[in-house]
């Protein structure tokens, strides 16, 4: 009897000791920072560099493995830089970069110190979005904090690492993490495939797949219609194709008839066959997102934009803000823009009676106007009315 009692005591002590574990401190709220969005869901944060009082525009980009500063902005602020042998890679090129070491970045209620910015030229992005893009905030910032993105209120909440109470509902997902989060998703069209994709808030599209992934997996039906288009990325412009996929599932959430871009991954951005491509923010903005890099987890909760319609419009036009004017620069042969009679260097004066000279407004009109639209252009300073039949890529 005595022996049995000793065993019971021993078991009891083992159970108690097994319940002892280190408990990290609770995550502590630091600040709430407003943001605004550009076409494709791109997130823009305003921040100050070092002691400079002027607000700079930064893209919040989970697809960036560091943090960067525009070369023109660095020159304007007389930021010293050092050329290095390090290279950065994007969809349109690979280049060696200089660095600006040990700087700070301030947003309302928070100052982030000891940041090493790589230097890149974002003139093309500035022209695409119509506002100055001064840099990109990526892994170097995100790895230090828990970041909650509320797309309903358009605010970014920042917390210290620690035990975090996620919003009720939604789903906690644990992607693979390097400097970039790599999330599993299920694609369904001619067949069903499970693969990994970069979780990329800096990409202004829904889904981007490498051509090798598409061809090898045969995920699309052989008679699927593809439309030639163009996108902008590191190194310049990149021709792509666009189609509509039957469905895409992220975690427990399924989206039907999703626009998907396909590109020749000449610079192996996706490290195929390790990855199939990336998930962009035109899809991710449909969730309120908690990025917990310290815990290597991401929480997704559907928001008020979850059921927003996707953009199925196709014009074949590339428009850019150049010297204060919105110009047609690129025209895909045989596209609706080509058939409507657009010419390179046409200046867009108005679209459907909107003469705001706001490239974001014009892009939104192009993206939400399937069917016939009226565009007035200035060609050699002479106004010209063009009627364009915007294509629906679902048909």
In brief:
The protein is mainly beta and 395 residues long. 15% of the residues lie in helices and 47% in strands.
Describe the SSE topology.
Layout: H1 2-18, E1 29-37, E2 43-49, E3 56-60, E4 67-70, H2 71-76, E5 82-90, E6 93-107, E7 110-120, H3 123-129, E8 135-137, H4 139-142, E9 146-150, E10 155-159, E11 171-173, E12 176-177, E13 181-188, E14 192-199, E15 207-210, H5 211-217, E16 227-233, E17 236-250, E18 253-263, E19 277-279, H6 281-284, E20 287-292, E21 297-302, E22 313-314, E23 317-322, E24 325-331, H7 336-339, E25 347-351, H8 359-367, E26 371-379, E27 382-392
Parallel strand pairs: 3-8, 4-7, 14-19, 15-18
Antiparallel strand pairs: 1-2, 1-10, 2-3, 2-6, 4-8, 5-6, 6-7, 9-10, 9-20, 11-21, 12-13, 13-14, 13-17, 15-19, 16-17, 17-18, 20-21, 22-27, 23-24, 25-26, 26-27
Description:
With 395 residues, the protein is mainly β. Helix content is 15%, strand content 47%. It contains eight helices and 27 strands. It has helices at residues 2-18, 71-76, 123-129, 139-142, 211-217, 281-284, 336-339, 359-367; strands spanning 29-37, 43-49, 56-60, 67-70, 82-90, 93-107, 110-120, 135-137, 146-150, 155-159, 171-173, 176-177, 181-188, 192-199, 207-210, 227-233, 236-250, 253-263, 277-279, 287-292, 297-302, 313-314, 317-322, 325-331, 347-351, 371-379, 382-392. The strands form four sheets. Strands 2-3-8-4-7-6 form a six-stranded mixed barrel. Strands 13-14-19-15-18-17 form a six-stranded mixed barrel. Strand 6 (93-107) and strand 7 (110-120) form a beta hairpin. The longest helix has 17 residues, at 2-18. The chain is globular and about 70 Å long. The termini are far apart. 38% of the residues are buried. Residues 1-14 have low confidence and may be disordered.
């Amino acid at each position: 009897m005595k022996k049995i009692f000793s065993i019971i005591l021993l078991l009891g002590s083992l159970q108690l000791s097994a319940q002892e574990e280190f408990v990290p401190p609770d995550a502590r709220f630091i600040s709430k920072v407003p943001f605004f969005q550009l076409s494709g869901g791109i997130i823009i944060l305003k921040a100050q560099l070092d002691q400079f009082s002027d607000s700079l525009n930064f893209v919040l980009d989970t697809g960036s493995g560091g943090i960067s500063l525009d070369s023109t902005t660095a020159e304007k602020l007389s930021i010293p830089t050092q050329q290095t042998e390090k290279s950065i890679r994007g969809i349109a090129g690979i280049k060696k970069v200089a660095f600006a070491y040990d700087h700070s970045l301030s947003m309302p209620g928070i100052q982030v110190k000891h940041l090493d910015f790589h230097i890149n030229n974002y003139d093309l992005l500035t022209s695409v979005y119509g506002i100055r893009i001064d840099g990109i905030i990526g892994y170097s910032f995100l790895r230090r904090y828990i970041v909650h993105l509320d797309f309903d209120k358009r605010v970014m909440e920042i917390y210290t690492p620690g035990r975090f109470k996620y919003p009720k509902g939604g789903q906690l997902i644990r992607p693979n993490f390097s400097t970039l989060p790599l999330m599993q998703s299920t694609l369904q069209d001619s067949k069903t495939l499970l693969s990994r994709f970069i979780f990329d808030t800096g990409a202004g599209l829904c889904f981007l797949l490498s051509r090798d992934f598409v061809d090898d997996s045969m995920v699309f039906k052989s008679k699927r219609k593809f439309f030639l288009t163009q996108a902008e990325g590191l190194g310049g412009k990149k021709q792509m194709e666009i189609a509509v996929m039957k469905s895409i599932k992220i975690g427990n959430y399924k989206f039907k008839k999703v626009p998907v871009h396909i590109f020749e991954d000449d610079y192996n951005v996706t490290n195929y066959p390790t990855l199939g491509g990336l998930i962009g923010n035109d899809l991710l903005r449909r969730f309120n997102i908690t990025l917990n890099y310290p815990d290597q987890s991401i929480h997704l909760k559907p928001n008020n934009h979850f059921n927003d319609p996707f953009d199925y419009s196709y014009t074949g036009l590339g428009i850019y803000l150049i010297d204060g004017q919105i110009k047609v620069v690129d025209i895909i042969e045989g596209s609706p823009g080509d058939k409507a009679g657009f010419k390179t260097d046409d200046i867009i004066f108005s679209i459907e009676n909107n003469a705001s000279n706001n490239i974001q407004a014009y892009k939104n009109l192009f993206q939400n106007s399937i069917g016939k639209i009226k565009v007035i252009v200035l060609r050699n300073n002479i106004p010209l009315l063009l009627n364009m039949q915007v294509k629906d890529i679902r048909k």
